[in-house]
From TrEMBL:
Biological or metabolic pathway of the protein: Lipid metabolism; malonyl-CoA biosynthesis; malonyl-CoA from acetyl-CoA: step 1/1
Class of this enzyme: transferase
Protein name in UniProt: Acetyl-coenzyme A carboxylase carboxyl transferase subunit beta
Annotated localization: Cytoplasm
Organism of derivation: Ulvibacter antarcticus
EC number(s) on file: 2.1.3.15
Domain of life: Bacteria
Family matches, as Gene3D superfamilies: 2-enoyl-CoA Hydratase, Chain A, domain 1
PANTHER family in alphabetical order: ACETYL-COENZYME A CARBOXYLASE CARBOXYL TRANSFERASE SUBUNIT BETA, CHLOROPLASTIC
A Pfam family hit: Carboxyl_trans
Function in brief: Component of the acetyl coenzyme A carboxylase (ACC) complex. Biotin carboxylase (BC) catalyzes the carboxylation of biotin on its carrier protein (BCCP) and then the CO(2) group is transferred by the transcarboxylase to acetyl-CoA to form malonyl-CoA.
Length: 288
């Protein structure tokens, strides 16, 4: 029996149901605040009473960042294969099929180009609902191609990370994506094309160890979990109690790993303000 196979069902709530965009009339935040789902959507999926940022995916981020939700999706038909014929308590090909049927996604990232506040931008956004946002070969390839598109068209790139890390079902092929995406971002840097990294809840593992922390500016939403290994693993490895708020966005900001934290309603304006500054364009802050 594999060491990672669960033998006792001690968890009553499926992981995928815990913090995603709610389905129904009401949503209850972790702090106990209840909000109407329609009101939640109008407030950028942020609980108005306590400011809790509900986990959302590429569909919602594209709606927030692209003007009138108009964009052209890049490499939309790329999908994962199973070169290692991986199987634990389930075949990898079956996991892929189930994830595709459940989410309607081809893999854990979508890339698109469109206008944001009137200027062209390329956005690569990860979806945690697809196998925990894990980074496999397709994720690395699509991000690399998005960087190539930015390089060719001289358009700024934004990557929105939301990931549990490298996809274990692809083993070393997944780990190769760290170097691959990092090399592409280095090419953008050499060409003077801005890259903004937005780390959302959660951003962990190989994603953090590569493109999520390589932005010209690294930003996050309030309360996001950001780190390499999880807090429990770090605590067990070091044998020490961790500081309060360890690996939250606020902790990382205080220790110099992030440039700023922004409320989701200000995200579009903040990203474009930064791009105006670095590209020496007229500021568009008042037109957000």
């Amino acid at each position: 029996m594999p060491w990672f196979k669960r033998t006792k069902k001690g968890i009553q709530t499926p992981t995928e149901d815990k913090k995603d965009v709610p389905k129904g009339l009401w949503y209850k935040s972790p702090t106990g605040k209840v909000v109407d789902s329609e009101q939640l959507e109008k407030n950028f999926y942020v609980s108005p009473e306590d400011g809790y940022h509900v986990r959302i995916g590429s569909k919602e981020y594209f709606e927030i960042l692209f003007d009138d939700n108009k964009f052209k999706e890049l490499d939309k038909n790329l999908s994962s294969k199973d070169p290692l014929k991986f199987e634990d308590n389930k075949k990898y090909v079956d996991r892929l099929k189930e994830a595709t049927e459940k989410t309607g996604l081809k893999d854990a990232v979508r890339c698109a180009v469109g206008k944001s506040m009137g200027e062209n931008i390329v956005i690569a956004c990860m979806d945690f609902s697809f196998i925990g946002g894990s980074m496999g070969s397709v994720v690395g390839e699509k991000i690399a191609r998005a960087a190539d598109y930015s390089l060719k068209k001289k358009i700024p790139l934004v990557i929105i990370s939301k990931s549990g890390g490298a996809r274990m079902m692809e083993a070393a092929l997944s780990l190769m994506q760290l170097a691959k995406t990092s090399a592409k971002l280095a090419q953008l840097s050499d060409a003077g094309i801005p890259y903004i990294s937005l780390a959302t809840d959660p951003t962990t593992g190989g994603t953090t160890a590569s493109f999520a922390m390589l932005g010209d500016i690294n930003i996050s939403e309030p309360g996001a979990l950001i780190g390499f290994a999880g807090p429990r693993v770090v605590r067990d490895t070091t044998g020490k109690e961790l500081p309060e708020g360890f690996q939250t966005a606020e902790f990382l900001l205080e220790h110099g790993f992030l440039d700023f934290i922004t409320h989701r309603k200000n995200l579009k304006r903040k990203i474009n303000l930064y791009l105006d500054l670095v590209l020496n364009r007229p500021l568009r802050e008042k037109t957000a």
